[in-house]
Amino acid sequence: MAASSLSSLLLPSLPLGCKSKTFNAHLHQGNSGIRFQRSTSETGVSRQTENRRTSRLVNRRDAIGLICSVSGLLMGTLGTNGAGLPPEQKPRLCDDTCEKELENVPMVTTESGLQYKDIKVGKGPSPPIGFQVAANYVAMIPNGQIFDSSLEKGQPYIFRVGSGQVVKGLDEGILTMKTGGKRRLYIPGSLAFPKGLTSAPGRPRVAPNSPVVFDVSLEYIPGLELDEE
């Protein structure tokens, strides 16, 4: 009886013949609840862990993006400073005032198709064919971008005029100049670079048979003295 009384206190009262089955059912349901609670708890922990990992990845991506942006900005600044003067500040033979005055200067066209405007008429002699000349030049494509310049090299270019050492348009244009003069030459493609020209890095390329513009100043002619007024 003592054992029977103790059992009745630990277990709920059940109808006769159903005690075992009902007890087993309660046990099964109870175990499922435990398993469900554990599963829910584990899922919550795993979600929290995944969220933390995602948050860390996002933070890392943001940090990397910020570093790349700052690096790009610094490299861009260094690149700009390292490239020297911007295009509009590069030394030229014709400044802004000269450009405005040049609009009113008449254009001269030769039989070959060369065109030119005198920026300044020189006072010295014109170079005979075959003579050496010292000239400064700024070579541009039609939109004004410079692809070569003696001014940036710091010394005049010396060549023998009329002997094919330079492009035909430059040869022809200088032959009719006077020492001390400046001229803008509009050279058609046939008198410039028929095969094109690959320029230095950062400079515009000259396409085959493309027109070019040369600003040129005839500095002196070795062997010929400048005539005085």
From TrEMBL:
It catalyses: [protein]-peptidylproline (omega=180) = [protein]-peptidylproline (omega=0). Gene3D superfamilies: 3.10.50.40. Coiled coil: none annotated. Its EC number is 5.2.1.8. Keywords: Isomerase, Rotamase. Residues 34-48 have a biased composition (Polar residues). Residues 130-222 form the PPIase FKBP-type domain. GO terms for molecular function: peptidyl-prolyl cis-trans isomerase activity. SUPFAM superfamilies: FKBP-like (SSF54534). InterPro entries: PPIase_dom_sf, PPIase_FKBP_dom. Residues 34-54 are annotated as: Disordered. It comes from the Eukaryota. This is peptidylprolyl isomerase. It comes from Punica granatum.
